[in-house]
Give the backbone structure.
Amino acid sequence: MSSYKFECLNVSISPSGVAHVEISRPEALNAFNTQTWTEIGQCFTRFKVDGDVRSVVLSASGRMFTAGLDLKEAMTGPLSKPRDPDADVARKGYYHRLFILDFQSAISAVESCDKPVVVVVQGGCLGIGIDLISACDVRIATEDAYFMVKEVDIGMAADIGTLQRLPKIVGNDSWVREVCYTARKVTSKEAHFVGLVSNVHATTAEAMKAASDIAETIAAKSPVAIVSTKHLLNYSRDHSVREGLEYTALWNTLAHNSHDMATAIVSSLKRQPAHFPKL
Amino acid sequence: MSSYKFECLNVSISPSGVAHVEISRPEALNAFNTQTWTEIGQCFTRFKVDGDVRSVVLSASGRMFTAGLDLKEAMTGPLSKPRDPDADVARKGYYHRLFILDFQSAISAVESCDKPVVVVVQGGCLGIGIDLISACDVRIATEDAYFMVKEVDIGMAADIGTLQRLPKIVGNDSWVREVCYTARKVTSKEAHFVGLVSNVHATTAEAMKAASDIAETIAAKSPVAIVSTKHLLNYSRDHSVREGLEYTALWNTLAHNSHDMATAIVSSLKRQPAHFPKL
Amino acid sequence: MSSYKFECLNVSISPSGVAHVEISRPEALNAFNTQTWTEIGQCFTRFKVDGDVRSVVLSASGRMFTAGLDLKEAMTGPLSKPRDPDADVARKGYYHRLFILDFQSAISAVESCDKPVVVVVQGGCLGIGIDLISACDVRIATEDAYFMVKEVDIGMAADIGTLQRLPKIVGNDSWVREVCYTARKVTSKEAHFVGLVSNVHATTAEAMKAASDIAETIAAKSPVAIVSTKHLLNYSRDHSVREGLEYTALWNTLAHNSHDMATAIVSSLKRQPAHFPKL
Amino acid sequence: MSSYKFECLNVSISPSGVAHVEISRPEALNAFNTQTWTEIGQCFTRFKVDGDVRSVVLSASGRMFTAGLDLKEAMTGPLSKPRDPDADVARKGYYHRLFILDFQSAISAVESCDKPVVVVVQGGCLGIGIDLISACDVRIATEDAYFMVKEVDIGMAADIGTLQRLPKIVGNDSWVREVCYTARKVTSKEAHFVGLVSNVHATTAEAMKAASDIAETIAAKSPVAIVSTKHLLNYSRDHSVREGLEYTALWNTLAHNSHDMATAIVSSLKRQPAHFPKL
Amino acid sequence: MSSYKFECLNVSISPSGVAHVEISRPEALNAFNTQTWTEIGQCFTRFKVDGDVRSVVLSASGRMFTAGLDLKEAMTGPLSKPRDPDADVARKGYYHRLFILDFQSAISAVESCDKPVVVVVQGGCLGIGIDLISACDVRIATEDAYFMVKEVDIGMAADIGTLQRLPKIVGNDSWVREVCYTARKVTSKEAHFVGLVSNVHATTAEAMKAASDIAETIAAKSPVAIVSTKHLLNYSRDHSVREGLEYTALWNTLAHNSHDMATAIVSSLKRQPAHFPKL
Amino acid sequence: MSSYKFECLNVSISPSGVAHVEISRPEALNAFNTQTWTEIGQCFTRFKVDGDVRSVVLSASGRMFTAGLDLKEAMTGPLSKPRDPDADVARKGYYHRLFILDFQSAISAVESCDKPVVVVVQGGCLGIGIDLISACDVRIATEDAYFMVKEVDIGMAADIGTLQRLPKIVGNDSWVREVCYTARKVTSKEAHFVGLVSNVHATTAEAMKAASDIAETIAAKSPVAIVSTKHLLNYSRDHSVREGLEYTALWNTLAHNSHDMATAIVSSLKRQPAHFPKL
């Protein structure tokens, strides 16, 4: 477990295989500095190859999920470098592009870890927070939660995943574009109506309970079936139906060798619970 | 009509061009064995080149739409072969992949037949049932209908189309992923809220009536316009807007030669009904 | 401003950078003849390179948004040419395909102009009207508005964008296909439920006010952030998440050089309004 | 073996697993009528699932490989149907497109059969002959062989594979385009210079011997390794390097389970020949 | 013919349908300024819809094909704008990108005009000259010709087509990359060996004769067959074989309606020359 | 420089910016074990962000370039794991796929490092050696060099890049497929004829001299121009011409800001050498 010690994240893994990740920078309303997103990348990259982790609940401590990008760091840190007048635009650009790609890669680790991630949003979820929850699988909110695609208000287009994923997870493009251009506040009720979140709960405790229930349910399934399902959903989103089917056929040609199928079918026919070894 | 004699399907075609396909394995709650999906593939492949068919209503007999995969066959039939310990994994895998592709191809025939398919779901629709209805065009349910993406409960990822099509027909990814990971029961009311079904009706008879009405409306239109619309919707789903537009321009360069356009426009201007010959 | 004089369009640009485009062919219920769509193409192509334009409100005059294609022209104009029996089908087809591509290109200019477009629909919006509003960013309707994907009723598949964009802006494929095959009337209430429009207002005046408010909000943001956001949303819709992220990283490597970011962050930290020069 | 009885093809399979397919319509200089290409499709489709076949030598009897399309059939058969003035262009087009796709599919079966195909060309190879040999893996010619992309001389663009595959198998686009536009005669010497054929031999017997030697060499390798290599070369041609690598990784995750690897490595270390069971 | 009057181009069209385009800026060794590439774009865009043009010979006057980009203009013209220190990098970048896209579009018009273009290179062909000839169909050189991918020597990557097309027209990537990184001189002999040019002729007159012969041969074919072949080669280059075949099937479903096929086949069977009306 | 200390690689960087990487496992004929390819991945990943490196010469010590995969490790190391009969095929497969992806990623670092790599092959270059040199930019061989795509002889398809890259760097598919299926020996002369290598030199010293000359030439150019050219060649290989052009336009919108262009053009006009600061 020592491998999950972080500065900005609290991580615990239950015996049943549910990892709980809590973002915790209370002094800054969980604003994302480089340390925060670097740790998220490291944490979920490890989850991918950790058989003890079967599903994940992601949440944040304090009164809001995240205030978004750490603006103080943004003024003096890596994000400010392109505006340095003393360097050749093309040269600094070469390295700045790699910096953005690294940032993206850290958030995309949530998607590519293959273990389903249920996220709970309380209070505000701003800017990079939307990038992050868009990379999760299931989104649950509290009644007091609100959402803002805040990037235009700091003079830039969102570049860590919101513009790629939000339109593919919410089937209301008119709404997506309006909130991306205006940065206006979206209530959890509205978020539920458009499908950004699956459920809204009165309190954080209830929302956490609902998220944990889903994660526990997932953790009890065959991990072969679960990681295959997440991996194939991600692949298929980005390919034609025909290519998705062909890749899936190849993937399952391997996965059908698993003993989990026989175990599951026999249990199902006997109407008994099945137990599946870890990945 | 003799060409539509099947063991597991009842098929009839109305003079107006609406084909009614009823899945009928009452002894097994319409569970899908190899015979069932093979016949679905054959039936819809014929529809594609049968000018007498202009639209299709698909339904199932008995108290549920389908219990999903036939688990008894799954334990001893083709699906069980990869778990045979006596064969070289790569060799049996070579053929098993082709088996999955064949299975997929049969269900995809519903999509590629070019004639719109309206499906009515009553009772339960489990596992492969979701793969099937996802390949249809319009989904209608009864109040007692429920839906389960059941595959993880038999230890595998859905591989016949659900993971490819469900996220592209329902614009609520949080919901899609939750039901794919948990296999939980979804009521017809919830299915309507998220957009999996267009309408919910109190009884099977009412749902069938609604489906037939839609199918009859479609059958009365120009078949050139209808098959073009379905074909182009499918093509465009899997391509960029730019590529979809270019392909559509080429397709309609041919289709605009049809006399149906003049017939339809004249009828429209005269506010008279138009009659279009079969394809 | 003289460059925005058109026959079928009224165009004005506010000092804040909101362009108002009104389709105006009152004698024909705003039916689209070649002149109309040619002018739309010209107008939005100019918007792209006009720094004075930061966002657009698109509307139509009179009692309905548009009756769709101008059927009289369709009987004798370019659209009727393929049915000319005196010409070689392949030869006339070579030029007819280019005609369709030009038509598509004009409507796609709304999408590719990079400035967000908010459209207000009152009365009926038929046929080509759906192609047009699908290429806009945000859709607002009046209570009396109704929508019809009317093309099958003139014997053809929609070919100017509806079949490409509608399924990607509305996350309810069952509904999309039903209305594309049946050409049935959709009320503004139903359009709101499925997500075709973001909001419904009692009167045209209220809808126009709501659209203008959104457009003004957008016009007050950094134009670098706004055009980047629209451009990247369009790019990402048509690419995998991975490709969308890579392109976005490159785009923002350039855009992060803008002084707007510092201006915006400083204003944000000081909680003061920011002012951004035009593009 | 009875399954390989054809009218226009002579097929035999050696004990070592090399199938010899000889096109034989001597009365028509091996011109391709519907029967011929239908049989090619059937033959290679069977090869795909026939473990007794490990590699293929394709040749043609008589003084030339093929005169191309059977022009007599072309004047009255399926290819002539679009020019029938009595039918609606769009309706007959709907079925004619399916006819072309079937024709393409038959020739593509050579590519998709997964067993490497070495083709020997003697005398002339015209029109559809180029489509066919472009779908083969290795091309060998006799000194008297010549090649003509003949389709423009019958008033049409090649549509069975030449325009797709020739530019991807010959790295000299200037040459490819010249011969596709002019239909001029290409000698076997020129074909060797540009890379259309790997080798040129003085006589048909020598060319057949060279082809058989290659096919026998292939048949002695692990069939898992061979079909994997062909399948992955085809997949990778049509995808980015990144996608090709990812698909290959998945494919080999399955294939590395084969005992052939251990057999081959041990034999290699011991410098002994290895024997591999059929697929 | 008045529509082909240009400052930097001499254009003539023969009665047989061969257009001759000569680049002529003798005072500047045919260096490309904005006027030159703008006219190339205009000229070939018109060729696309001019039935009198069936094929094109492109050449340049004077002692070399082109010295490449006009460096004097490059120091003060549009290309120099991004280095203007007085403007916001993102704002000027927004417009500069559109400038590059316009430049690319002009050269790509050679490719997209659908009529085959045979180019003759004499003397040097530098920088943008390589972009241009890579967009042509057939390349012919004189013995004294030499080639240089010169862009790195002006501190930039080639951006008008060389890096996209050169590796797809020459099947020797080691050579392509070496000449793109080093900008070294390539003789016509070497260009022939690697396949950049199809033929090398002793004198410009002989090279022009050879080019004209090819162009005349093409002009005598069915223009339906010729434009289809070029269009489909371009489409297929940029798509998978499967997608190329499907698009080709649709295209030829239309083209097979042409009377040219019957004309050509009858002429072929009678061994008489055929005459085809213009497009 | 301490960051380039490796067990299996000798690395030095000249003041002019040419890195020399020598593979050195003399005790094993430079066979690739995990250590070797891991170090190659690390080395080239660092090159990407090391401004002191402008181009690379890659070679190997001893009498042959590489004997290919380290077969002893292959029998007991990670590659042998899928054949472990004691583990669930799907579970071990999950991790084995990640292992192959890591291996691929290490070799692909040669391609993605953005600095051109010139490789010198002496003696034999087998199996993984072909994967490696295919990821390089320019290939140079000695007369005694030979090449073998050896993977089928160890019972598997090449999976580290050969099947993806070889057909795209050599424009002779008949040859590519033959050598991939037969694993036969290819001389340097044949390799030169088909374009696998650009040049053949009598001795290793001469080949190294030629490689160094090319690398030095590259190192003297604008590093902005060079990394842009390599990056864009790689991007364009994997995209359509249209997409390659659009990405290039965006890339150069940034790169045109570099002072290198003015420096280079002024030097070019003055016919003086230019000096460019490091990236």
